[in-house]
Amino acid sequence: MIWQLDRIRIVLVEPAGPLNVGAAARVMKNMGLRHLVLVNPQCDLQAEEAQRMAVHGDDVLAAAKVVANLPEALVGCERAIATTGRLHRQDQPLELPEVALPWLLPPAPETSFAAALIFGPEDRGLSNDELIYAQRWVRIPASDRYPSLNLAQAVAVCSYLLHRYALAEALEAAFPTVETAAVAGHSASLDQLEGFYRDLEIVLLKIGYLYPHTAASRMAKLRRLLHRSGPDSKELAMLRGILRQVSWAVGKATGQD
Q1: For residue 188, what pLDDT is reported?
Q2: Residue 89: enclosing H or E segment and its boundaries?
Q3: Closest by alpha carbon to 160, among 25, 54, 30?
């Protein structure tokens, strides 16, 4: 097994078809991926159709983790990429899988690193509210006449690319041809970032920078800013310290606790 792939989760949000789930498990096994996470699945994972499509990937299917929501699926992850078949009017750019997916590979063989690749439901894809949990978005280029890929097909395309890039990195490590740079430090985990975003929204509402009716759109822009900067745990702790001090100062000035 290529060790880099063991740090990556394939996350399916509300999959409805047991055939798709089984086929996804099979192609994951083909490409050396084994961590399948299902968010509120709308089908029976033990259905005969899922088992039949999984074939020798039945161990991946059997070990699949079921969670209630997307933030729970991303606990412990430092990086997440969301897939989408739609063009969005938001500022977030849509990247090619070949450009973005290598970013999910861990920088060093450390057990603490985890990353996620997120796929949406078959009938609607990921919503805007779900997309904001990922730092980067990818869209698989396809014909304008029929650009929407089947869920299992999308998983297959991305799994193949992850396997290809992980294999290339493994060969480079075994037979280095260029001097490698020092490994960068770990980014803060996504669940740590979610805690910071909650605190940030509370403080910004308190000081009047945000208004309830526009908070969601403004917070989405702030999320993109933080995602691009990639703060580590110590930097995020510093930012949360600033928020606590601002909250204390506002409370003191207004006579509130």
Answers
A1: 84
A2: none
A3: 30
Structure tokens at 134: 């990922």
In contact, 11 and 39? CB cutoff 8 Å:
yes
Per-residue pLDDT, 233: 83
179 lies in a domain? no
- CA nearest to 77, candidates 202, 249, 171, 193: 193
- Number of C-beta neighbours around residue 244 at 10 A: 12
Whether 178 shows a pLDDT value over 70: the answer reads no
- Helices (DSSP H) in the chain: which residue ranges? 18-30, 48-54, 58-62, 70-73, 97-100, 128-131, 151-174, 190-206, 215-229, 233-254
Which residue, among 189, 237, 197, has the nearest Cα to 219 in the 3D structure? 197
Show the tokens assigned to 32: 């050396």
Domain boundary, last residue among 147, 174, 201: 174
Residue-wise pLDDT tens digits, 9-47: 999 999 999 999 999 999 999 999 999 999 999 999 999
- Residue ranges making up the domain that contains 40: 3-174
Inter-residue contact 91 to 85 (CB < 8 Å): no
How many H-runs (helices) and E-runs (strands) does the chain carry?
A: 10, 7
Is 182 part of a structural domain of the chain? no
Structure confidence by residue, pLDDT tens digits, 204-245: 998 999 999 889 988 998 988 888 888 888 888 889 889 988
Do 81 and 129 lie in one domain? The reply is yes
**Residue of 123, 39, 130 lying closest to 83 (CA atoms):** 130
Q: Output the pTM of the full model.
A: 0.78
